[in-house]
Inverse folding.
């Protein structure tokens, strides 16, 4: 297991390096945006660009970029957005909003999705199963931003139950306390629902598929012949075996809450890193783009590693097979 973990970490580091190198070269091929603002701001940014080698050949810039990352973990300052402010500090301020909306979404979507999947598997080929399967297909097929527009139109505009955007965050106060306050939660409900529908549909589909297969296995028939009721056999045996596949998905979802949702944050005005990433592409702020690209890539790689490793701890057959 140790060798496998080391191998996966090295492959993840190599993957991160390749992806970041591609992003760096492609973004540097675009024309450098002009610096605007006060004379002092322009002077600071231009001096920073000189220090970072912006006007050198691209391969020299590439070497200096990785040298700064490995030696001082310096991702630069904002040039078009949050001018002269540290990129890492701004990302740290935006991260709580992204984590908040995604944590709320997972808290509701995981139990509902698994519960609906169990109910559909138990009622397999009945009208309840067909209804749930149809709804799952709809919510998986429809993009989350389409659902977001519908929710925003019906519940925010027509009914007026919620505001069109989430409450504003005061950066001078405790950001974490504001994000996880009751008033902020209420304002986030439309965004939470927009994110949750797709996750609920995904967990419902996987839970139904795994549990349906387990319920028809031979050991389930043996459990019933030993006197267990259908309910007891499902809870004690079928559900535990089905969770071997479902539980790693739950771990991956919780790891991925840092990644957030680019479009949903933009639609509902959530002050998270998703909206920051989209804006950095629009205004071509190279430093924010590179830092957030590295962040998203790293989160995806870590989630994949955690999911793969969790199989070895959850399923004894994998550990035995490895030996």
């Amino acid at each position: 297991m140790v060798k496998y973990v080391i191998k996966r970490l090295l492959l993840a580091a190599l993957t991160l390096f390749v992806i970041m190198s591609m992003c760096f070269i492609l973004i540097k091929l675009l024309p450098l945006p002009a610096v605007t603002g006060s004379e002092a701001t322009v002077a600071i940014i231009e001096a920073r660009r000189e220090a970072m080698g912006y006007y050198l050949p691209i391969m020299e810039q590439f070497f200096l970029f990785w040298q700064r990352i490995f030696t001082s973990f310096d991702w630069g300052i904002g040039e078009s957005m949050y001018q002269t402010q540290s990129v890492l500090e701004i990302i740290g301020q935006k991260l709580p909003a992204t984590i908040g909306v995604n944590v709320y979404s997972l808290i509701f979507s995981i139990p509902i999705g698994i519960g609906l999947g169990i109910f559909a598997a138990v009622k397999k080929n009945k009208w309840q199963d067909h209804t749930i399967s149809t709804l799952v297909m709809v919510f998986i097929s429809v993009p989350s931003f389409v659902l977001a527009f519908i929710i925003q139109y019906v519940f925010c505009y027509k009914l007026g139950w919620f505001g069109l955007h989430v409450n504003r965050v005061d950066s001078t106060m405790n950001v974490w306390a504001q994000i996880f306050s009751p008033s902020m939660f209420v304002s986030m409900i439309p965004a939470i629902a927009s994110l949750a529908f797709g996750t609920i549909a995904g967990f419902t589909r996987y839970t139904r598929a795994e549990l349906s297969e387990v319920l028809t296995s031979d050991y389930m028939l043996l459990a019933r012949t030993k006197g267990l009721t259908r309910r007891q056999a499902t809870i004690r045996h079928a559900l535990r075996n089905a969770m071997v596949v479902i539980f790693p998905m739950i771990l991956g979802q919780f790891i991925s809450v840092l990644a957030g949702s680019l479009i949903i944050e933009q639609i509902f005005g959530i002050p998270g890193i998703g909206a920051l990433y989209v804006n950095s592409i629009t205004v071509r702020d190279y430093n924010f783009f590179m830092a957030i690209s590295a962040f998203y890539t790293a989160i995806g790689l870590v989630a994949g590693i955690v999911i793969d490793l969790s199989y070895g701890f959850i399923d004894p057959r994998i550990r035995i097979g490895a030996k």
